[in-house]
Amino acid sequence: AVVRAVLFPEHDLVAGFDVVGQRVAPVRCGDRPAALLCYVARLAGQPAPGAVVVAHDITDIRRLEKVRQEFVANASHELKTPITSIRAYVETLLNGAIDDADHRMGFLNTIDEQAARLDATVRDLLTLAHIEAEGAKPPVVPTDVATVVNRCKEHHRPAADRRNVSVTLHPPDGPVVVAIGDEALDTVLSNLLDNAIKYTPEAGSVTISWMIEQSRGVIVVEDTGIGIPQKHLNRIFERFYRVDRGRSRDQGGTGLGLAIVKHLVQSVGGKIEITSTVGRGTKFTLRFPLAPPS
Fold first, then answer.
1. DSSP sequence for 210-245
2. pTM for the complete prediction?
3. Cα Rg of the chain, angstroms
């Protein structure tokens, strides 16, 4: 925290603070709102010749407190929703629906879907907690981008075929080997490709290209999907943030995928950028350090 100690006459003190003691003062730092925790003590004397003020900049602490509160509220909601659904259907079955041959399988399938959603949310929370743990980084080993991209394409081929979405690869002339573990890169690309397929209308397309630019390994995932409004782009990597909450849940997402992507990319010194146009599609650009020659 930034700490400042200042002396000024008592009448200035009275004009700036209601009481002598401790107070949080909202201020502005340029265009950014800030918060100062101020400790005020009068100097000895009658009348007091002035006062000592020690101001701690607690802007970041307040911001982190707000982020934590939002995270707890969102996590509670995401966990409560499937639990409530599971309990409701179990209660219905216990009250006699277990003997209803026409509906019981539908109830059981819903319970299974909600349990899977709950499991996915908990797994993503644990993954995110591990990534954010101090000192926890994915193994920085040479990874061939082409190998991981082709594997991800094959893994997501059934989902793409169901939605009639084409996935096209644009490889470079030579290999691109980046300094991020195979598993971590697979997680990053799988999340991006999964989202691209989910939010691209039928007969749309997803393109993955990779190359070397300015001594960095660059991977671009671009789709012709529904796009993201500009006002949401600066928050899209926040945990549980959803542009359209109802649509996201219908697609089966946990709201944590892009947060995991961002943390994995940044943990190895990489960068991720996003551009999007509503109705035309979204483009993610990943920049990774190149692996040193073996």
1. EEEETTEEEEEEEE-SS---GGGGGGTTSTT--SSH
2. 0.69
3. 26
